[in-house]
Design goal:
The chain folds into two domains: 311 residues, Up-down Bundle (Na+/H+ antiporter like fold); 161 residues, Glutaredoxin (3-Layer(aba) Sandwich). 64% of the residues lie in helices and 6% in strands. It has 24 helices and seven strands. The strands form two sheets. Strands 3-5-4-6-7 form a five-stranded mixed sheet. A hairpin with a 2-residue loop joins strand 6 and strand 7.
Length: 611
């Protein structure tokens, strides 16, 4: 359970949220004065008479956070070479959306603070916190399809790069030329090692640490070092030769197990995967569960007493940050998305609709990690304005999360599209099932069941996912009930539902439809082509055989559904009559009992005088 928790986006966000709450509790406890005292304890490294010293907060902000930005650099490098940033048309929309999500919040902030003491803090509301956004999307679940997640991830990467450039260009107070020249020399040494293909980790660690120190001493913030080094790390797709060598090494170990063969197999498999991907795999848990939470613990401790809250309510800094995150991010990202789509400069992944994009724009207003980072740079030495800015960040991030959740819940999750059957209908729908259950249907349960439940479902629909265990429990408790599944993929809302249905039909050819059905509902958030191929391999099924025939089969289910008045998923028919109640076990069980009684009455022979 712990490993599963640590692998989830919600898990890392929970740890980050816990660290934030702990910082707030510490700063507002009877021992609150120890919070600032602790983080200002000086620590350092000495070499003879030379001393390099920082306080604990700067070791976290300037040191540990370099690893966080190094990971961003790795992500950028991977996406540019192998990921979504390769396709300019897919990059154009999130890139311009990220630019709008920076310009509009900064503009709103400056409207309120131009010429005042808080003017320099215009960079605070420009950043999106990727960790918190992914956590909110994990809570949203299947209502956030993979294409929207990919769009927001690309937007967040571009946003991070732009924010780092803002830090480097606008929050550097003074430059030390000797230290800057030393930094360039060390960077050149790293580039030389890279060009000579010398891959000795100790050399890169020593040079990287020296580059970090030189950059810090030069006056440029060392976050730039982190992202630059991340971008320089090699990334490549596995070549056929490396895959073949890895396969041979593993086969050799399998046939003749030994320590030498195990070591060779391990090395061959590792070399098949790029250094970039290996580093991301190793560093991501440390960044998500240690570095970023420690950063939040060191920076989120703001005093929330009556005096500070009253000051924040009237402070242009707090109001500017809050409005920048909530209104500025939403308007800027929405406008930045609309412009390139309107003029045909790019496309969106999948079949996203505006309701989904508005929800994503709203949650992108969660600006926490980098926003706190910029507060420390912009208002260093001014604790009063720092406190007001942090209160604005907390308020704006919380409001953005709530706004995003409401949009996902209300804006496009209603009106019969992926909505429960008790949602208010917009038209008069047929009550009876037009296509009776036949040999071509997928049936689970006894052939001569007294109650037949026909479900029109979508493998990506969250309501269908919640209904799945309910129907299973119902069937176990009622041996005279059978369940029939018919495909009704909502292609506009759930772009992965149709491919999942095709793979389910491929499994049906092998007599394993229901096994695949259960796997797909247990893994609703993971329905990429690679995921579907993995599930098919588990069942020894070829996933993409005879796709045209399977597509026709799915289309036939959709036609019968539309003829029967199906407009959203899940839609149920009990013994051919539309079910319009709640989707919980108790409500459906009552409807099953009524359908059973009705079936019994119809089957009971009537006396001649009543016939």
């Amino acid at each position: 359970m712990l490993r599963a928790f640590l692998r989830t986006e919600a898990g890392s966000t929970t740890v980050l949220l816990g660290a934030t709450l702990l910082a707030l509790l510490w700063a507002n406890s009877p021992w609150g004065d120890t919070y600032e005292a602790f983080w200002h304890i000086p620590t350092g490294i000495s070499f003879g008479d030379a001393l390099f010293s920082l306080d604990l907060r700067h070791w976290v902000n300037d040191g540990l956070m370099a690893v966080f930005f190094f990971l961003i650099g790795l992500e950028v490098s991977y996406e540019v070479r192998l990921g979504q940033l390769r396709d300019r048309r897919l990059l154009a929309v999130p890139a311009l959306a990220a630019l709008g999500g920076i310009l509009v919040p900064a503009g709103i902030y400056l409207l309120l603070n131009f010429g005042g003491p808080g003017e320099v803090g215009w960079g605070v509301p420009i950043a999106t916190d990727t960790a918190f956004v992914l956590g909110v999307l994990a809570v949203v679940g299947a209502r956030c399809p993979d294409p929207l997640r990919a769009f927001l991830m690309t937007l967040a990467i571009v946003d991070d790069v732009l924010a780092i450039l803002v830090i480097a260009l606008f929050y550097t107070e003074s430059l030390s030329v000797p230290a800057l020249l030393s930094a360039f020399a060390l960077l050149a040494a790293i580039l030389t090692l890279r060009k000579l293909k010398i891959w000795r980790a100790p050399a890169y660690i020593v040079l990287g640490f020296g580059l970090w120190v030189a950059t810090l001493e030069s006056g440029i913030h060392p976050t730039l070092v982190g992202i630059a080094l991340g971008i320089l790390v090699f990334v490549y797709a596995p070549t056929d030769q490396k895959l073949l060598l890895a396969g041979e090494a593993v086969q050799s170990f399998t046939s003749s197990p030994s320590a030498r063969a195990a070591r060779e197999a391990t090395l061959r498999v590792q070399r098949a995967v790029s250094v970039n991907e290996r580093l991301r795999l190793r560093l991501q848990p440390w960044s998500s569960y240690v570095i970023v939470p420690v950063f939040a613990l060191a920076n989120a401790g703001v005093v929330l007493d009556g005096e500070s809250l009253r000051a924040a309510l009237t402070s242009p800094v707090s109001i500017g940050v809050t409005l920048g995150l909530v209104v500025g991010k939403f308007v800027g990202i929405s406008l930045g998305t609309w412009v390139p789509l309107r003029f045909g400069w790019g496309t969106l992944p999948g079949n996203l609709v505006w309701g989904q994009l508005f929800g994503g724009a709203a949650v992108s207003g969660i600006g926490f990690t980098v926003s706190l980072f910029i507060v420390d740079l912009a208002f260093d030495g001014n604790p009063g304005i720092q406190s007001q800015a942090k209160i604005g960040i907390l308020a704006g991030s919380l409001l953005s999360a709530v706004l995003g959740w409401l949009i996902f819940k209300l804006a496009w999750d209603r009106g019969g599209v992926c909505a429960p059957p008790d949602a208010e209908p917009e038209e008069e729908l047929p009550e009876l099932l037009t296509a009776p259950v036949g040999p071509a249907d997928h049936v689970r349960g006894p052939e001569k069941a007294r109650v037949t439940i026909v479900e029109y479902g979508d493998f990506e629909c969250p309501y269908c996912g919640r209904l799945h265990p309910v129907l299973e429990e119902l069937r176990k408790k009622n041996p005279d009930v059978r369940v029939v599944f018919r495909h009704f993929p909502l292609r506009t809302l759930h772009p992965r539902a149709a491919p999942a249905a095709v793979v389910a039909e491929s499994a049906a050819d092998a007599g394993r439809f229901w096994e695949m059905h259960d796997i797909l509902y247990d893994n609703q958030r993971f329905l990429t082509d690679a995921d579907l191929e993995h599930y098919a391999a588990q069942l020894d099924v070829e996933p993409w055989t005879d796709v045209p025939r399977h597509t026709d089969r799915i289309a036939a289910d959709e036609v019968s559904g539309r003829d029967s008045g199906v407009r959203g998923t899940p839609t149920l028919f009990l013994n051919g009559v539309r079910y319009q109640g709640a989707l919980d076990l108790g409500s459906i069980s009552k409807a099953v009992d009524e359908a059973r009684r009705s079936a019994t009455v119809e089957q009971t022979p009537q006396p001649p005088e009543l016939a």
